[in-house]
Amino acid sequence: MPLTLADCLARDADASASASLQGVRDRFAGGDPDTLYFDANSIGPMPADVPARMQDLLQAGWAGARRRGWNTLDWLEQPRTLGAAIAPVIGARAEDVRVADSTSINQYKLLRYALAAQAPRRVIVLQRDVFPSNRYVAEGIAHAGLADLRFIDGVQDLPRALAHGDVAVVALSHVDYRSSERLDMAAINPQVRVAGALSLWDLSHSAGAVAIDLRGTEADLAVGCGYKYLCGGPGAPAFVYLHPRHADAAWPAMCGWMGHASTFDFEPDYRPGRGADRFLVGTPPVLAQAAFAAAAAIWREVDPRALDARHRSLTDTLIQLLDEQCEPLGVQLASPRQHERRGGHVAVRFEHAAPLAQALVDHGVVVSARKPDALRFAAHPLTATHEQLWTAVARLRELLQRQAWRDPRYQQASV
């Protein structure tokens, strides 16, 4: 039987399916009342108390305490406390996660760290069609003469890439940013480890949406951004993960006073901090951390298993609605149907995806498109509802039926 609006409302009302998440949705700002937001893979919803936290920081901290804030407030500890808050969401220990800098900078740090720890091995293996910034970072390292790159078209090519015995690190995206295909971390990590290499995972499109178990799958290194599903705010600091077995394997590529073993001793020579602390570099961005702290307060209370179950229910519902209402109109599923193989968003293929995405945004459904033909719906598991999915797909169907993407207003490129 086709899904009805009543079915979607019933799934929202099923308390047994989301008991541990009751009340969490109310802790986020609602946004524009006539807009449906499915852009959590670009920027997550804002915790409702962010403005109050920011105002308190500005008045009591910056205006009032000034330099005393470094001593009386938690500014310097935020990279650790924020890391500890999100650690359960990615299956890690609190002491192995730090929040700092951006995903690209952290990717650079960890690639260089892996190369130093694995010398004389100098090959970086990465996906040919990975998110461009990940590739650019690796190319920059290779251009400086510090590594050689070896590309794979898919994980099926990994055994051949590892066979030479010269690979230092395999850098993979947990989830493809276009199709949302999720790689099997538990199956890949042993392949990499047996070959004597390290695994480095980019969790940007999975952290805060689906189940991740870095420690259980023996992942070596990981990075991810804080502003997507983790709801840290626009340009929020990213996170870095280091398995404790590599805690003292090498010096960091970027040595700064915050990563020193004894920050305020002001020693003339650098001594790396313990474990993940060595990936801290400069003074932390206190204003950005204050916004992220609002999200961290919520993540401390979220059961990762309940989060994953909620995401499964939402995305399975979305796929069924798209199949039933939009497939006859030229929309084809691009994401895996199995939840375990799918990341945070659901992607469909449509020849005119970019202008169609703009038409949807213009009609109150915020989605995104990626070349050449991917239309992406990213429902945040803490805030999205099944009813919203029904409404969004109904609007999509109506726009497809009248070929709204042909409107000249939607032909210009958009983010």
UniProtKB/TrEMBL annotation:
GO terms for cellular component: cytoplasm. Its EC number is 3.7.1.3. InterPro entries: Kynureninase (IPR010111), PyrdxlP-dep_Trfase (IPR015424), PyrdxlP-dep_Trfase_major (IPR015421), PyrdxlP-dep_Trfase_small (IPR015422). GO terms for biological process: anthranilate metabolic process; L-tryptophan catabolic process to kynurenine; NAD+ biosynthetic process. It catalyses: L-kynurenine + H2O = anthranilate + L-alanine + H(+); 3-hydroxy-L-kynurenine + H2O = 3-hydroxyanthranilate + L-alanine + H(+). Belongs to the kynureninase family. Catalyzes the cleavage of L-kynurenine (L-Kyn) and L-3-hydroxykynurenine (L-3OHKyn) into anthranilic acid (AA) and 3-hydroxyanthranilic acid (3-OHAA), respectively. Homodimer. This is Kynureninase. It comes from Ramlibacter ginsenosidimutans.
